[in-house]
Amino acid sequence: MKLEHAQIEYARLEDLPRIVEIYNSTIESRMVTADLEPVTVEQRIPWFEEHTPDRRPLWVMKHNGEVVAWASLSSFYGRPAYDGTVEVSIYVDEKSRGLGAGGRLLNTVFDACPGLCITTILGFVFGHNEPSLGLLRKYGFEQWGYYPEVAVLDGVKRDLAILGKKI
Predict the structure, then answer these.
(1) What confidence tens digit (pLDDT) does each residue in 108-162 have?
(2) What pTM did the predictor assign?
(3) CA quadruple 146, 150, 152, 153: dihedral positive or negative?
(4) pLDDT for the residue numbered 39
(5) Which CATH class is domain 7-166?
(6) pLDDT, mean over the chain
(7) Residues 6+ positions from 155 with CB-CB distance below 8 Å
């Protein structure tokens, strides 16, 4: 499968079940998310509603009409002084990994940031998630922080790396 013709657009509510499905598919690996149990579409509705194209977008990448990846920007720390800083999240369906979806979504994020008055992007990544760390580094993120053994996944202590990029 080639994704160069895949479309990137703002997510719609009807995309949410597939967004949740892709998210939930990463839980078992214990590499991507700190959630330990699957989430439901209903649980994610408030999260979805927090993402608006004019402030904190949520994008989907569609290939042949099916969502194969998504990216979101979330507010950092919830205080007005941090409005120019966001956390980026990118999730790619297992069948679409390694095909450039993450890079295309990051470029979409970078292009949108000036119009959203965003000057700083952060990525919070488990220290053992080499694919995600590699993707962010490839696109100019640098490690700005490191928290050793702050998460416990199935009895295993895991580190959290914080990578950042100025826009």
Answers:
(1) 999 999 999 999 999 999 999 999 999 999 999 999 999 999 999 999 999 999 9
(2) 0.95
(3) negative
(4) 97
(5) alpha beta
(6) 96
(7) none
SS3 letters across the chain: CCCCCCEEEECCHHHHHHHHHHHHHCCCCCCCCCCCCCCCHHHHHHHHHCCCCCCCCEEEEEECCEEEEEEEEEECCCCHHHCCEEEEEEEECHHHCCCCHHHHHHHHHHHHCHHHCCCEEEEEEECCCHHHHHHHHHCCCEEEEEEEEEEEECCEEEEEEEEEEEC
pLDDT digits over 20-38, tens only? 999 999 999 999 999 999 9
Domain range list for the chain: 7-166
CA dist 140 → 1, 18, 42, 106, 128 (Å): 27, 29, 35, 11, 19
Q: Angle of helix 16-25 relative to helix 41-49, nearest 10 degrees?
A: 110
Pairing of strands 58-63, 66-75: antiparallel
